[in-house]
Amino acid sequence: MNPKVPIRKLVAEVLAELERLNYAENTRNTYRRFYNRLIAFADSIGETVYSEDLGNKYLRMHHHFDLDIYTNSSHRTFRGQARCIRVLGDYQLHGAILRRRTTKAPYERTPQFAEALKSYQKECVCQNYSEQGMRTRIYRAQLFIDYLDDCGMTSLSLLTAQHLSDYTRTIAGYHKKSISAILTTLRSFLRFLYLNGYHEKDLSSDVPKLKQPHFPKIPSAWKPEDVKRVLESVDRGNPNGKRDYAILLMVARLGMRVQDIKEIRLTNLNWATRSIEIVQHKTKQTVSYPILDDIGWAIIDYLKNGRPKTESPHLFVRHHAPFETFGTHANLHNIITKYTRLAGIKLRTGASQGMHSLRHTLASVLLEQETPLPVISEILGHMSTISTSVYLKIDLEGLRKCALDPDEVFHHDNI
Fold first, then answer.
1. Is 382 a catalytic residue?
2. What's this model's pTM, rounded to 2 decimal places?
3. Measured in Å, how far apart are the chain's first and last C-alpha atoms?
């Protein structure tokens, strides 16, 4: 973009973009009033072109702060003014209105290890790790690097088994699953250092091993009647309710993962075959879900009467401007929480209350209907029945059928 564009023209373009993105009229009026005052201030000091310095001057004179000292923790009265200024600067530089939701400062690499960490990140990409898997691996590698920096280490080539032993002691108080995951990442990182010439020895074998028996946590499952109450609590007379009802049905009736639901595009809906055809985010496998009658009518109702006007290719979008798809890390927990409260359902202490628990409920119901494990695995999108077998622990009715009658045992012994 041209940074020399007159401030009046820049403001006009920003307001037009806000309207194109379907920002509410009241919101656009708030921006307009702020920019009118900013233009008047620019005229008073003889400025005709917008700059960050001009914006900061205005904020200091009229609101007693500037962007150099503004943080997300600053008083909420500053947020609106800061947002207006940043929108103007973003559009001037990028020709777009960016969403800024930074919740923490970006990680700053220690200089002596920056190259190695960047190379390891590229290696993770080449290994086709999922976005979440790569993010956690890089985060754990950063923690290890920060530890080495605190110890005064200047080069990864100086790393010894003693450093690994000392670092392991710092995580001794963590949960066993966390320790196991950290040590796994550490072995991967050390193997990478050896294979890429950062260290002359493969130290991955020197990382302590943690015995971690496989005792999966018993999944939390809802009572079928509670799932029905949650669905009935949704107000399907408003756009949000129409969207939320369709999403909840997809999880409860099809067992779809939230990430897959967020990524459904309009082109994934095959009305001719009454199916939803997608590539699962977690398994990278192509799957086809049936559009059951209730789900189909819920989607149609949302598309016709609830979905806001938007250029987004995704089926489900946020209902406040700009109307885009849900964020990458959005787990839609607020949706299930909202309707659980409206339905007056109280879950037992420690029970999972998120969307994923509805998948557990579907698995439980299917087990009670004596559905074979391979079929349940396919429905839930599991790569192996091993992942599905954990649901055997919540098939209480099935377990009761397996219970032994003491009288029958004693009678058998006396034969």
1. yes
2. 0.59
3. 93
